[in-house]
Amino acid sequence: MKSTILSITLAAVLIGGALYLAQGGDGRGGDGITLADNVSIVDSKQIIEIRAKGGYQPRQSVAQAGISTVIRFNGKGSFDCSLAVRIPSLGVSQTLSRTEFTDIGLGVPKAGVLNGSCGMGMYPFQIVFNQ
């Protein structure tokens, strides 16, 4: 019994440590918010990179609210409905380039969740904006 508890505790510490190290220290926004790996802040502009091919990768991103933001879609090599992006709450309906990156400006988003999908609604994606 004692060895089982010790084993569980050790496993939890190792897994927690691995997750902590995997996030690194440079994935933080200006207010200490942990951003997704596909989010960067360059020259006071937040860039969220999403791959559009057979759906959207990643399907969920975490970004910082209150900063000028652009979603940069990579549709290179895609030939499916993920090239037609819809973000209903912003009135966005745009066809992505198959050969270049396509940027969609979001302005300065407030804290909350932004939902989008392909033109057919089959492939959803979500961006969570934290304060």
TrEMBL record:
<dbReference type="InterPro" id="IPR008972">
    <property type="entry name" value="Cupredoxin"/>
</dbReference>
<protein>
    <recommendedName>
        <fullName>EfeO-type cupredoxin-like domain-containing protein</fullName>
    </recommendedName>
</protein>
